[in-house]
Amino acid sequence: MADDVLGPERALVFATPAPIPPEVQAAVTRILTGGLSLTEAFTVTVDALASVNPTASRLSVVSTTLRPDQEQGWIRLGDRAWLMERVAEGVIPTAHVGADAGAGRALSLPWFSQQVREHGVVGITDTGLLDGEAEGDRTEIEAGGSYAAVGSSMLCDGTSYGSIGVARAEPGPWPAETLAAVQVLTAALASRMAAERARVSLADAIARGDQARESQQHFFSALGHELRTPISAIIGTAELLADEAADLVEQSDQEGPDRDTVAGFATGVVKDSGVVLSAAEQLLAVIDSLLETGQELGGGTPRQAVSVAEAVSDVVHWLRAPALTAGVTVSFPPDITECVLTTPSGLRQVLANLVGNAIAYNRPGGRVSVVTSTSSDDQGIAHVRITVHDTGPGLSPEQQADVFKPFVRFADPEVRGTGLGLALSRSIVERDGGLMGVESIPGEGAAFWVDLPAVVSPER
Description:
By secondary structure, the protein is of the alpha+beta class. The chain folds into 2 domains: 8-202, Beta-Lactamase (2-Layer Sandwich); 301-460, Heat Shock Protein 90 (2-Layer Sandwich), CATH 3.30.565. Helix content is 46%, strand content 20%. The chain has helices at 22-33, 38-52, 110-119, 135-143, 176-251, 259-297, 308-318, 320-326, 344-360, 397-402, 421-431, and strands spanning 12-14, 56-63, 75-77, 81-87, 121-124, 148-156, 159-168, 304-307, 329-331, 339-342, 367-376, 382-390, 435-440, 446-455. The strands form 2 sheets. The chain has a 7-stranded antiparallel β-sheet, with helices on both faces. Helix 1 (22-33) packs antiparallel against helix 2 (38-52), helix 5 (176-251) runs antiparallel to helix 6 (259-297) and helix 9 (344-360) packs antiparallel against helix 11. It is elongated and about 115 Å long.
């Protein structure tokens, strides 16, 4: 610090480039690559600090973001901080043994902490020079028997993970090597803690995903039991009523005083039962779609390389009857060679929905074609695009914006459908890291496409 600096800043020194002692280099390597637990990494840090500061009266590391993986060797400071400390003989520890004993003894050091946040690694050569606004910091440091100190803040990507401190019972300059050692140990420990935080976050996300998947499976199981069963009963009852009413209509052909009344009532039941049956069957189709997708999203089948050609061939074969009835021609090139990373049932469910829609919403004598192409994104990851073209009425821009929303339908009422197929198909595609979209010009048909990660077969 320059001689003309006034105020408490004249007691400060900052880290500058300097040789790193071999023992500190070894410690950094172990922290970053040694597979240590957090407690072990902190212990290695304290050992390294002790090796380059043999006259230190107090060595400390504080964790403020991550809870230690074990309680032994740590002092709890309030609710959010844990201290690992090593003191010289005769020096009073920050806290005595006991739960939360350290909370009231934690150093606040407001002025010094601000200097550390601004400069990274900061040393105090003589607490006797801390006057004015730093007077409170001087009192705190000297109360622990220290008259020179070094502090650093463990920052990584804007997040503070704690701090490192070195204190000495005698005032005096801090060697540049000591400040440099504190600097690299701080950076290594901050990086290690950031990696641990990411690992914990990933583990939590996986656990939450497992819980969500389990809840999803319970939901679909309950859906099948609580809804499908009574709806099946409604369908059965409606069919029975329709049969009985039809018998009454036949019987009413015979002479009798109530012939007209019975015939009118029975005819109405026959008509109304048809409405009930149609509505129940439509609701049952919705439930079946949800159940099918729920089973697919449940994660029972691992993702694997799936042949697009085989999936397209199967779907076209399944839908040949409705295509023939509608007078629609379905075609696909014979030389499809791509494979995608998904599940066999998932890809077939998605394609069956797209090709089925292209047939149902087409014009008589229309055409449906399935084509594929391969491309790479900005990161060089290959994707296969499967596109289903039709010659139907097409979609307006407004319809394209809403077509993937659940229960949205644009077809005439006589075209059966649940309004869930596209929404559920997109869920399956996105689960496997893909995308799904549509391109259309009103009056010129539509092209629904699916992008999925490509799998390059060994022979290609």
